[in-house]
Specification:
Helix content: 40-55%
Oligomer: single chain
Order of helices and strands: EHEHEHHEHEEHEHEHHHHHEHEEHEHH
Radius of gyration: 25 Å
Number of strands: 12
Strand content: 15-25%
CATH superfamily of the largest domain: DNA polymerase, Y-family, little finger domain
Structural class: alpha+beta
Number of helices: 16
Shape: globular
Largest sheet: 5 strands, mixed
Distance between the termini: 50 Å
CATH architecture of the largest domain: 2-Layer Sandwich
Strand order of the largest sheet: 5-6-1-7-8
Number of domains: 4
DNA sequence: TCTGGGGTCCTAGGACCC
DNA sequence: TCTGGGGTCCTAGGACCC
């Protein structure tokens, strides 16, 4: 019998760009460096800014000409805040109106996804050149497997982390924070230890000293709900969580979650770094500027609905997927949400087909209450190329299939 | 002055099949 | 006097993440 080769101790890095959107904006507007700046809002902030800026080069715009948070009115939230703004107790996902109370003088910039995607592509390409085993975790963060990279083990990964940090900064002017640890779970926590522009190295033996004192909420996957339940059970820190028996956690949180929590508290995580993955669904949604009523605002709602379907269809075509589950999402004025979906016999990426079936879904929802959000989703995706290959296989066989059914 | 948009994964019940 | 149990698909909701 062959014995598997001994696997080396894994060294996994988590790299997180510092205040990514805001930092990209500061490249464009260096005159805002050090000031409280937030990114967020919708069309309104954008219009204001464009109206004020005209054709001037970005770096020449006087600080006094930028729109301020206090002048905003609408339903936007903060996407990113500079560290100067975070000092005022404002941060991601906070409503702009609430943030304006805490820091009215903050400068408000609209989101510019095209710019962020460009820098995202750039920093990821730099990483891939140095360490090819990278997992994409969104626009501003990645996991990297250092294990087999030459020099990836030196000082626990610190040397390679520093090299990557410098390469990204030299090419873009952007800083990032890196955590290196035996697995993704610990690396993710470590990357927060020395933010911004920091590196943290965690070894297995650091569990008690560096991880156990942290709040349970620092575990990626324990959110507000699970944290509240843990607190009610008298558990605040990861160390306290680690003292509980696995069976006890499974009784309180279910088999799967309980077992996972137990492992997480003990720093155990065997998930691999995943290089490629297929999307499961593609969706578009929009929050209205004012709540809409299904009857009184029927025309407006219908136009938005159709546009969302067209956008999803475009996204499917651009990314090369077909799907067969069509779904909608509604959010009412009381913020309660419902979803409806249906699965078609055949895959599609056609806007009219999506619109028709999304319309059927909508008919299954009582619409007395006003709506604040409408969304359209296509799931059960299949790459377009596979779908076409499947059709070529299937077509000649179809009559035969019918005969066999008889 | 309430709370964006795009995702993933899990749970749970019912249908349906073996 | 049916009585199980497993597996998969579909649908709805919810937690969580970036």
């Amino acid at each position: 019998m062959n014995t598997p080769p001994p696997s080396p101790q894994r060294r996994i890095a988590h790299l997180d760009m510092d205040a990514f959107y805001a930092s990209v904006e500061l490249l464009r507007y260096p005159q805002l460096k050090g000031l409280p700046v937030v990114i967020g809002g919708g069309r309104r902030a954008q219009d204001d800014q464009q109206a004020q800026q005209g054709e001037r080069p970005p770096h020449k715009i006087p600080v006094a000409d930028f729109p301020l948070l206090k002048d905003y009115s609408g339903r936007g939230v903060i996407t990113t805040a500079t560290y100067a703004a975070r000092q005022f107790g404002i941060g991601s996902a906070m409503g702009l109106m609430k943030a304006a109370k805490r820091c009215p003088q903050a400068i408000l910039l609209p989101v510019d996804f095209a710019a962020y995607r460009h820098y995202s592509r750039t920093f990821k390409d730099i990483i891939l050149d140095i360490a090819p085993l990278m997992e994409d975790r969104g626009i501003d963060e990645v996991y990297i497997d250092f294990t087999q990279v030459p020099g990836g083990q030196r000082e626990g990964g610190r040397v390679l982390a520093r090299l990557i940090q410098k390469a990204i900064f030299d090419a873009t002017g952007l800083t990032c924070s890196v955590g290196v640890a035996p697995n993704k779970l610990l690396a993710k926590m470590a990357s927060e230890f020395n933010k911004p522009n920091g590196i943290a190295i965690v070894f297995e033996e650091d569990l008690q000293s560096k991880i156990w004192p942290l709040a349970c909420r620092k575990i990626n996957g324990i959110g507000p709900k699970a944290d509240e339940k843990l607190q009610q059970l008298g558990i605040t820190t990861i160390g306290e969580l680690a003292q509980k028996e696995q069976g006890w956690l499974m009784d309180h949180f279910g088999q799967k979650t309980g077992a996972w929590m137990f492992d997480a508290a003990h720093g155990v995580d065997s998930r691999p770094v995943v290089l490629e993955s297929e999307p499961v669904s593609i969706s578009r949604e929009t929050t209205f500027e004012r709540d809409l009523h299904a009857v009184r605002d029927k025309a407006e709602l219908g136009a938005i609905f159709t546009r969302l379907c067209e956008q999803v269809a475009q996204d499917l075509a651009r990314k090369g997927y077909v799907g067969k589950t069509i779904g909608i999402k509604l959010r009412f004025d009381d913020f309660k949400s419902v979803t409806r979906d249906l699965t078609l016999p055949d895959y599609t990426l056609d806007a009219a087909t999506i619109r028709h079936h999304a319309g059927l879904c909508l008919k299954r929802v009582p619409l007395q209450q006003r709506l604040r959000l409408l969304g359209v989703r296509v799931g059960s995706l299949l790459p377009l190329a596979e779908h076409q290959a499947g059709l070529r296989q299937e077509a000649p066989r179809a009559p035969l299939q019918t005969t066999m059914d008889l």
